[in-house]
Amino acid sequence: MSKKIKDTDYLVISARVKAMESGLLTRERMEQVLEAKSNEDAVKILQECGYPELDPADPAAMDAALSAAREETLKDLADGAPDPRYIDSFKLKYDYHNVKALLKAEAMGTDADSMLMDLGRVPVAELKEAVRTGQLDALPAILAEAVTEAREVLNTTQDPQLSDIVLDRWCYRDLAEVAKSTGSAFLEGYVQTQIDAANLRTLVRTLRMGKGPEFLRGVLLEGGELSADQLLEVSANRGAGLTELYGPTRFQKAAEVAAEAVKGGSLTEFEKLCDDAVSDYLADAQFVPFGEAPLVGYLAARETEYTNLRILLMGRGAGLPAEVIRSRLRQSYV
């Protein structure tokens, strides 16, 4: 962008974000939802917090309501954000989700509409037409390259998993480029932390599957704090050195639990601790008076809140004990 954007340009939006933070669900509020006597009472508590009716008996309707809440949040903050790239950094993953759905549907001769989420940078109707016709010039450049490569991989291998891997790598590459273009060290650090979390998950899953370094090399993401070579060495040693590698990082706790997960233990706590490590990176944004950090922190906090609501309500709907649901909830921002 031609105009240099300063921290002080965020004074108004930062004030709005600080006010909106008071509407985030605290751990205590989620505890009230968890301990509600009935699902109806749980839904009422959330309605008092500004959410629409979220019925755990109808997961599709609940997901649609949460998607609508996401869309409203992004649109609301986009109107006041001095630099739209910060909003784009939270929208672009939906572009890649939609491309995955469209390419799979194309390969199977089915319709993708039920899988699409109109939350990305590119409206769903435009993306559908671009993918259908192959006329990708109007798409963001990196997304267009991603569609081309993923389609080639899918046509050549007939393996949707490989196509998804290609799109995941392009998605994080796109995210890193957007973050770099803003000049925000905070956003770049957030993206790097997400990449480290994704790579740790991938390392653990490949070890559980008995896959070796060559397979891992093909699925690792670029741009993390830890290099691919470091992770490949752990893979070559069948998991030995994993806790030592991650010991000095914010993923220490996740790595300690990963040692059991690699042996076939539950992945649930490991996945939660990976997400909590990313939330830990964002926590300091609450104490920044103005700038892009409060905006990024709030948007990420909302994403975590939507994840927690789904875990909480689906868990209640499935009749899971409160202590099991509680153990799966991600770390709250407030």
Description:
The structure is a single chain. The protein is an all-alpha fold and 334 residues long. Among the domains are: 92 residues, V-type ATP synthase subunit C fold, CATH 1.20.1690; 104 residues, V-type ATP synthase subunit C fold. It contains 16 helices and no strands. α7 packs antiparallel against α8, α9 runs parallel beside α11 and α15 runs antiparallel to α16. The radius of gyration is 20 Å and the shape is globular. It starts with 10 loop residues before the first helix and ends in a 6-residue tail after the last helix. The relative contact order is 0.13.
Envelope shape: globular
Order of helices and strands: HHHHHHHHHHHHHHHH
Q: What oligomeric state do the depicted chains represent? A: single chain
Helix percent reads 55-70%
**Largest beta-sheet characterization:** none
Percent of residues in β-strands: under 5%
Overall pLDDT, averaged? 91
CATH class of the domain at 184-287: Mainly Alpha
Q: What is the fold named in CATH at topology level of the domain at 184-287?
A: V-type ATP synthase subunit C fold
* DSSP summary: helix tally: 16
* Poorly predicted tracts of residues: none
CA-atom Rg in angstroms: 20 Å
The separation of the N and C termini measures 33 Å
Assigned CATH architecture of the domain at 184-287: Up-down Bundle
Decide which structural class fits the backbone. Answer: mainly alpha
